[in-house]
TrEMBL record:
This is Uncharacterized protein (DUF697 family). Keywords: Membrane, Transmembrane, Transmembrane helix. Pfam families: Peptidase_M50B. The chain crosses the membrane at residues 23-43, 90-110, 116-133, 140-159, 165-183, 215-238. InterPro entries: Peptidase_M50B-like (IPR049500). The keyword Membrane applies.
Amino acid sequence: MDWIGDAWQDITTPQPVPSSTTVLLTAAGVLLILLVPVAWHVARHGLTIVHEAAHATVAVLVGRRLSGIRVHSDTSGLTVSVGKPRGPGMVATVAAGYTGPALLGVGAAWLLSRGYAVALLWILLVVLALVLVQIRNWYGLWAVLVTGALLVAVTVWGSATVQSIAAYAVTWFLLLGAPRAVLEMQSERRRGRRRGVPDTSDAGLLGRLTHTPGALWVAILLLVCLAALALGAVWLIGLQV
């Protein structure tokens, strides 16, 4: 049982915070991934997992019954929950998807600013484990297992430097990827309108639930993600508010 004690000590002991140069270089690397289409398509699966986990978490918190999560090869996902089809609980559940990665990124940035890189990695592993038991399709199972295997390798066998860089990379990916995903959703909404396809996006659903334009919800989701990015960046690079 010594490894449990060692793991707990690593989780609860702050690690040295890397230099601002290292943090910014990590951000630049993540930004490059977001800008290269092939790299973004692969990495986007991780954001989808967090997106669906956020839907699921809020659904449970507002009293809905979770039926399962699916992650698809085109990086889309689906979380099914049972409950009232309208009302504040449903609005909160739908709104959680695109804001979830951003808010998780803010929490991660706060932890990293205090040196808890290993603690963050273990938290992410717990999130993946909770998603795993709710996955209802083979591709989603594969995506979660591969992501989990990579995270386990870094968390359990990685050096302190590797763990720190990985924790910062994941955090930057959540913060930078969240607004990227919202803009991507809006582009898909525009393409759908041109083809006459019904708007099935989260923004479109939020618009129908609240009797407001879907574009308003795109703006709200984007503002939340950008605010999270700004706050997270302040914590990550050590600026004073």
